[in-house]
Amino acid sequence: MEKQAREITNEKLTELAATISTKFFEHLPYISTNFEHNCTNNNRLRTTAGRFLIPSCNIEVNPKYYARYGQQSLHDVIKHELVHYHLYRLNLGFKHKDKDFKQLCKIVDAPRFCHQMQSPKYRYKCSKCNTEFLRMRKVNVKKYRCGKCKGSLSPSPI
Ligand SMILES: [Zn+2]
Ligand SMILES: [Zn+2]
After folding, report:
1. Between 20 and 30 A from 132 (CA), which of 21, 114, 119, 121?
2. For domain 10-108, which architecture applies?
């Protein structure tokens, strides 16, 4: 079972955004800038996973979102926001409907839409500590165990 991501400090989020930017964007020929702004938690976001702010160029993420969906989802959200970020700074089409946007999402393998908190489809319960895990995808309970106590998991109706 993957570890549940707890709320990450704004400093760490900014570092993470810079790392993702370096890894996926900065080697592209038309991108010449690093991530030079801030990535912060916004607890007031409800169902939105993250957003790119204009004109400040900062990125905000919803801590409830990555607490629920885990570290990988946080990476995906930040990557998605970085597509907005880099295109905006290059004066290219940075909106969801824009061709530049769709193309860059494809190149860096970012989700084109990841803004909404969807309701999870699967629920699992630990047989030992009774912790519940909500997941979007089916989990192989033979392979994965409880992230807290290593107890076995069983599906429980949602
Ligand atoms: Zn977006
Ligand atoms: Zn457990």
Report:
1. 114
2. 2-Layer Sandwich (3.30)
